[in-house]
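User: Good morning. I'm curious how methionine sulfoxide would be positioned relative to this chain. Could you predict the structure with it bound?
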Amino acid sequence: MNKNVFIENLRNLISGETDTTAVLANTAAYIKEVYGWFWIGFYIVKEEELVLGPFQGSVACYRIKKGRGVCGTSWQKNATIVVPDVEEFPGHIACSSLSKSEIVVPLHNRQGNVCAVLDIDSDQLATFGPAEQDVLEAAVRVVEEQVF
Ligand code: SME
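Assistant: Good morning! Here's the predicted structure, ligand included:
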């Protein structure tokens, strides 16, 4: 799907709802419907950890510390992290042996601090490139404006 159509559809999907859990849940479901990736979900910053939030996919680990795994590294660096091969990422946290590549995109609150991350896993290598990064970063801008 074209990026602008995807972002406009997402905006329409979540506009009018201000509950964070509800918006994150439908955002994960919508990304799953469009792209079909293996695992799509949010981890939310609570005190000094990331805690599992709404997701689509198989069961996952509950808590990730700052600087740990791909998610904790994205939080610490306040940057999108693209991992073409999870076996090559030191400290990668394997929630499923089926995950082969991954992208993590941080979300920010009004103060500009990371308040959650969008984590997406693929069961194939090198799924995420500049085009996927671009559309997912645009998607989290829409979500963070709405609920954070
Ligand atoms: N692989 C992630 C952990 C979360 S699961 O992929 C759902 C990481 O290394 O942070």
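The pocket of methionine sulfoxide is lined by residues 39, 60-61, 64, 69-71, 92-93, 95, 99, 102, 119, 121 (CB under 6 Å). The chain is about 35% helix and 25% strand.
Let me know if you'd like a different ligand tried.
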